[in-house]
Amino acid sequence: MFPQKQQYDLIIVGAGLSGLSAAVSARQNGLETLVLEKGRSIGGDGNYVEGAMGVDSYLQKETGVKIDKTKLLQEELAYSHYEANAPHMEQFIDASGETIDWLHELGVAFLKVGPQGDSWPTIHTFTGGGHAAVQTLYQKATDLGAEFAMSVSAQQVLMAAGHVTGLSIMNEATGQSSEVKSKHVLLATGGYVDNPELVKKHTTMSDRLMTVSDGKSTGDGMQLAWKVGAQHYQMGAIQYGGGAIYDKIQPPFVHMASQIAAAATQEAILWVNERGERFVNEDVNDNMCHAGNAILTQSKVFSIFDQAAVDHLVNVGLYKEVGNSPISPDKFDGLQSELDQDLKQHAKYLVKADTIEELAAKVNLPKLGETIAQYQKLVAAGSDTDFGKQTKYLTGVSTGSFYAVELGVGMACALGGLRVDGHNEVLNNYGYPVPGLYAAGNDAAGMLVGDTYAVTLPGSTAGYAAFSGRNAVLHVVGEH
Ligand SMILES: Cc1cc2nc3c(=O)[nH]c(=O)nc-3n(C[C@H](O)[C@H](O)[C@H](O)COP(=O)(O)OP(=O)(O)OC[C@H]3O[C@@H](n4cnc5c(N)ncnc54)[C@H](O)[C@@H]3O)c2cc1C
């Protein structure tokens, strides 16, 4: 449905995590606010979020979690090879705890705060997941009087005398077009992970990437902004979700709670490439983005394990904690039946054989026998002198049957595209604002990363979405 009025103080494009945070804040500050959402439902990828990053939040104070902000900033800048924007990063970190407190006061519930694997203890897990959080924000924004136009997309940023004057918009259901006026437009469209052309242009081996997003993050915000002179900025950091089952038939979400996927990626016993050669310390999966990078250094990757490992995972327990998966049981008691079921259905990504030789022949991995013989020597010696895997995770591959699962790389979201200043104003090629144009969330989050998403600071994209939406609004309020 088209907007009810012709003119607003602020138009927000996208009703995801950043757009909803901005909408609540805008109404708290008395701005006449319109939110355009091209989909039929609200929340965007915010629906799938586990938690949001914060430092010095109420929850961290309650639980005695203390973080040295200066050290954190320095470490994150180093992780990004100083490609992250230091002042913006510092501003975000400084405000992040207060942002969590603000969400909490609005009624967004948090279950716990802590690290993800070997990370800073910054992720505040939403009770009921991101879905509950975005619903709470939507309800609050609506109660406060924000107007939502659903199935309406922004098509073009309108400018006059160098300043934003509004948007041309389209009803996604009927194809009808219209215009709506505002001196302030906030782009909050969720980045470009669902735009295959942009992903291909900026990422290696894009055909092996499996997106797990909502399908609506098609890079609209950056493309609208580029057309009115915004700088192309810092594309290429994708939030990889580590290894993922390489299934070209079913969509990736089918495997999100799969125990085969968790066994093949997070338990990661032996990973080999297209020749059957080992190429990495499989503990790399402790950092899901590093794991994604490592997998993409090879043409193909297979996770190899034996029946003894399956039996152990089913009956005894996990070799290592499953940190990055929606499932984190003590045992994979459904693993054997999942394997049997997929084999029965001739799933292309899964091969089983009685012997290593047979597995090598079936998958066409000529070096597999040699690789496993060498790997078994390392297991027997209790020391991975080849790649440095921790001894406690050196699990053998010796007891048939043998399994190979082909891996691609999961990707949740893509960051960047637009450069913003400390008010989340979109900058042009000369480093000056495009007057009236703002960006938040993933559209602007290239400011926080280098070429690899900082999983070391867990929850940072969700935390940034909430922070940046509010941050832009505060500047609009000041200008108003
Ligand atoms: C499976 C999964 C798990 C994740 N887990 C975490 C996590 O635990 N912690 C974390 O920090 N991050 C996580 N993320 C990333 C997180 O979801 C995003 O960083 C966050 O949602 C970004 O907020 P956003 O507002 O930029 O985009 P979104 O929340 O995706 O919202 C963008 C909205 O804009 C709308 N839109 C797009 N184009 C237009 C247009 N032209 N006109 C109108 N509307 C438009 C879209 O339909 C969408 O509703 C996860 C992502 C996925 C996919």
UniProtKB/TrEMBL annotation:
<dbReference type="InterPro" id="IPR050315">
    <property type="entry name" value="FAD-oxidoreductase_2"/>
</dbReference>
<feature type="domain" description="FAD-dependent oxidoreductase 2 FAD-binding">
    <location>
        <begin position="9"/>
        <end position="447"/>
    </location>
</feature>
<keyword id="KW-0274">FAD</keyword>
<dbReference type="InterPro" id="IPR003953">
    <property type="entry name" value="FAD-dep_OxRdtase_2_FAD-bd"/>
</dbReference>
<dbReference type="GO" id="GO:0033765">
    <property type="term" value="F:steroid dehydrogenase activity, acting on the CH-CH group of donors"/>
</dbReference>
<dbReference type="InterPro" id="IPR027477">
    <property type="entry name" value="Succ_DH/fumarate_Rdtase_cat_sf"/>
</dbReference>
<protein>
    <submittedName>
        <fullName>Fumarate reductase</fullName>
    </submittedName>
</protein>
<keyword id="KW-0285">Flavoprotein</keyword>
<dbReference type="GO" id="GO:0008202">
    <property type="term" value="P:steroid metabolic process"/>
</dbReference>
<dbReference type="InterPro" id="IPR036188">
    <property type="entry name" value="FAD/NAD-bd_sf"/>
</dbReference>
<keyword id="KW-0560">Oxidoreductase</keyword>
<dbReference type="Pfam" id="PF00890">
    <property type="entry name" value="FAD_binding_2"/>
</dbReference>
